[in-house]
Amino acid sequence: MRMGAGIFVSALFLWLLVSLLITGGSEANAGPQTWTSSRQCMSCHEEVFAEWQDSWHARSWTDPDVRAPSQSNNFQNKDCIDCHAPRPVFETGVGNRVLPRSSRRSEGVDCIACHLLPNGRMAGTIDNPRAACKPQATVQLQREDYCGVCHNQHKTVDQWRDTAWAERGEGCLHCHMPFRDGDPNRGRHHGMPGGHDLELVASAVTLTAQRDANGVGVLVSNVAAAHAYPTDERSRASDLWWRPLAESGEELPWRHLHRIRDPYRWEVDVPSTLLMAAEGRELRIDGPDAQGPLEVLLVYKLTPFYRDPASGEPFALGEVTDPLSDSQEVHRVRVDGAGEPK
Q1: How far apart are the C-alpha atoms of 77 and 163, rounded to whole Å?
Q2: pLDDT confidence bin for 120, thresholds 50/70/90
């Protein structure tokens, strides 16, 4: 009797073992998990989650600049919700505009928005049905049209298509999602630096100024952005300012020289002055005040208009006395006065 029971238990154990080997275990056979928050990803993807949490994708809903009246007006402009709190990209399909979600909006552009597939698995770089999120190798993650579902609203991907970067096959991930420490074996960094990263912005453009017989020639060039500078957000702008340098050391008022920006749709009388990839733009500073030493300043703005720090009311460019009050310095150059040693 005992021998028969032992044979039965051994046979049962062997059957269970073979079943597990064939099916990959109960986890592989389990139905798709319900994904309700990016925090579910944290326990397995701690490094990636920390990078994302510190990114502007994670802050796309809470960013005060986005909520400003000149932009989404606290998301009263409902068109902005689509890309700042999107449903999964793969729900509508790569190449199609995403839809807005009604829950978890504070998570912004989250793990679920970028990775959840219609079959309940997660788009990734490998197939592993035994893992908790059952990643499925999805080559579309690497394509520019995937990023373009949101970032081509203002033609950023279209701008890239006409560049040498596109000809070389260097797309969005090359600059905005590089390999960790340059090592492909460590995967891509999910901090995704962009327009909020001043170091990256500054690396995209150069500023030079040189005196000639009539005054000063200024050249601003888009040397490293694989799209227009600035791009994507019509609310972003970059301005060139200059001022004479007084011998006394007194700080004289800045004077506006040029604005680089793509206007809003309703600004029908404002031309686009975007600096396209590989474009250099020459400007002039002439007149009596340009004969002495001067400096030229390039600033970058995440909001389109200069505002009075006290009242918050917008300034006209001619009224701005301190362009750095709500802008970031990108480059600054000094030019010696006429006749001064170089």
Answers
A1: 33
A2: very high
Residue 295, strand partner residues: 243, 334
CATH numbers and ranges of domains, the chain: 38-186 (no CATH), 198-335 (2.60.40)
pLDDT, tens digit (0-9, with 9 covering 90-100), for 171-197? 999 999 999 999 999 999 999 999 999
How far is Cα 124 from Cα 51, in angstroms, rounded to an integer?
Answer: 17
Question: Hey, which residues does 335 pair with through a beta bridge?
Answer: 294
Give CA–CA dist 58/39, Å, rounded: 12
277: pLDDT strictly greater than 50: yes
Contacts for 289 with CB less than 8 Å, ≥ 6 apart = 244
Find all residues with CB under 8 Å of 73, minimum gap 6, and list them: 67
pLDDT over threshold 50, residue 5:
no
The whole-angstrom separation of Cα 208 and Cα 288 is 21
* CA nearest to 114, candidates 127, 101, 102: 101
Rounded CA separation 11/3 (Å): 12
Report whether 121 contacts 136 (CB < 8 A): yes
**What is the DSSP code string of 43-85?**
TT-HHHHHHHHTSTTTTTTT-HHHHSTTTTTTTTSGGGHHHHS
Query: What are 95's two structure tokens?
Result: 């190449």
Check whether the bond before 341 is cis (ω within 30° of 0).
no
Helices then strands, each counted (H, E), the chain: 12, 9
159, 227 Cβ separation under 8 angstroms: yes
Number of Cβ within a 10 Å radius of residue 7: 10
Please report how many Cα atoms fall inside a 13 Å half-sphere around the Cα of residue 135, on the Cβ side. 16
